[in-house]
User: What shape does this take?
Amino acid sequence: MFRLDKLFTHLTLLALAIFSAQLAGAQSMQGASKFPGIGRSATPAEVIAWDIDVRPDFKGLPKGSGSVEQGQVIWESKCASCHGVFGESNEIFTPIAGGTTADDIKTGKVVSLTDRKQPQRTTLMKVPTVSTLWDYIYRAMPWNAPRSLTPDETYALVAFVLSLGEIVPDDFVLSNTNIAEVQKKMPNRNGMTRNHGFWSVSGKPDINSQACMNNCVKFVQVGSTLPDFARNAHGNIAEQNRLYGPYRGSDSTKPPLAKLPGSTGEGLAHAAETHAASTKGPATLFKNENCSACHAPNAKLVGPSIADISIKYQGQSGAVDKLMAKVKNGGSGVWGSIPMPPQSQLSDEDRKTLVVWVLSGGK
Amino acid sequence: MTKKQIELSVKEVSVVEKPANRARLVKAPEHFIAQELIADINSNGLDETRRGFLRKGFFSALGTAAAGLAAPMTFAADEGDPAILEKQEWQTTLGKNVATMPYGVPSVYESNLIRRESPGLTRVSAASVAFTPLQGLFGTITPNGLHFERHHQGWYNLNPETHRLMVNGMVKNARVFTMNDLMRLPSVSRTHFIECGANTGLEWGNVAVPTVQYTHGMLSCCEFTGVPLKILLEECGADLKKGKFMLAEGGDGSGMTRTINLESCLDDTIVAWSMNGEMLRPENGFPLRLVVPGVQGVSWVKWLRRLEVGDMPWNAKDEAVHYIELMPDGMHRQYASIQECKSVITTPSGGQQLLDKGFYNVSGMAWSGRGRIKRVDVSFDGGNNWRTARLETPILTKSITRFNIDWVWDGSPAILQSRAVDDTGYVQPSIKMLRDARGNRSIYHNNAIQSWKLDSNGEVSNVQVG
Assistant: This one.
């Protein structure tokens, strides 16, 4: 009895304690709120659903594991089409692997960032923390299906990416228990500095220029100009300025004018076709319907280029009907293993416009 | 009018009402469309047959206009300008009804001034940039339809009814707010510039792009309305003594995440739902974005869904792989956030063509992420001699200030530059000073003095001096 009594007393005290804590909590919340009736407490399940970030100290990292081998299988089906089989592709995104050495892994500082032997900075040359890779892959990859990977798949993919940089061996299994050790091997872990004045509004600038007003330079030397070949690389500048008023655009499809055009603009050689590009037409449709997310004019992206398609089907009878069906229902196998998803949202008219335009080579 | 019809009328306007020609004296294409057809469209709407007629009418109008161009109109001094002597169509006929355009759009004569991508800059348009046409803007406010775009994984029209903002981390009580909640809170309206950290980044090594749209067009300025961040964090009981950092997270596919410096930014950051008097545009984060005045645009997280208070930075992808600045010693500057004092002349600017000698109002924009613009000097001789420009009011902190200066061009080659000074005394540097300090592979935070070379043929081009 005595023991039971004691237990009962303890339970009562505990319940009282919990009750009063809740009461105090509720009172303090009510007391603290300046805006009654606005907002509500987040439930634990809601916080878990959204608070998925992983910090460099691995706060927020879910438990799990994945091997390099498993990662490679996922990589080849979900990642390689954009990033290349070895993370080396520079076609769609900047390369992920390359440019790091065994010595960098020892020192934590990537030498190729200074010797300029590597043409392009890869992810592994820059990223100082494994947490960054884990967080980003889990939250935003694959490109067209973010938030579709499980934690174990993410561990496997991070392990595979690290193996591409020979940071972990090919038989490695990455897990929440060894990830902090792996982070200590990141090739550029010592390559970041916060020693600058740009973090805070009161930070100290690194350059102290003076506002000289007269006779400031002995002679003015033009160090760099736009190369002639780039004159029209951004499209006709005449079409990117007003066609009236004092500041017209120069016709970049032609060489510069020989002399000033005169105050009424009669010396401007713009032809009638230098009007603003139409906001309609197949090229706009191609962009608005997101075809351009996978198909570029001349380069292979996820899918074949417009040029390649038009060459392949050149002179083939029935090509329009065939491609119209493919666009509507989707297809795969003709240009590789990545399937084209069905585009059933397109009207028949738009579908035909697009197919005819693509077959013409986008002209 | 149904929604479908409204969209149709807006789409079709480029056909119905395309500008006749740049020659001033040519009549609008409507003139070439039979009155019967106009009446028919007004009563029965547009269908394919009627559209065909319109196109025909329009093309014949263009043909006439082109022919008109070959012989520009001149007139004898004792006669006068036909634009005055002749009656114009819009003086002699009935104009359009109110609400013909239920949501108004700019004049068809403005259709050249649109956001544009820089070809070859990015390979995927869902993770790309569309630049603001600064060469055509006036004053300080960027029209909403021309605000620059930068997405990391495409944009969506988020449903505001189901949009939520969660505040968690080092707070007494993790809270959830709906748009209904947020828009009841005390709001502020403040005008601030937003500039991508990579603005002018193409020009670190050499001149790379032709116009101010591409050199400086990742810059916009709006009046933003929203609730001050401080109110929200205090309402949730944030531990602001230990929690010096905040993660801002977006609701897009990239789940955009950036670490915010609460010590530096707590006092003026806004959780905003409005730009320039209307709700945010979907491309700019509808229905909610963070406004972090003076800090690079990537931190102004769009489609904002979560704020987490913490005691260390997060090293997110866009602060550990991108938006880091390579220095000559191989180190990357991380968490460089503030946009330092900068200015650019927008008219005349690269790719523009002056018609004649004489008087010009040379005009541009100046801004600083550390405060107000104090002064802007302009040089016409490549930086040898400078004159102080007029600053237009209001001069607001961390906002664009418009400057103007009178100039009579004598027709000889000139190099135009502007140099801004902010109220901390910081002077906008030359590209040479920037390269001497940081090399040329930094990509970000290029706030160099911009040089525009004006040739004697009236063409302006992008150059770098020194």
User: Anything to note?
Assistant: Confidence is low (pLDDT under 50) at residues 1-35, 37-42, 45-72 of chain B.
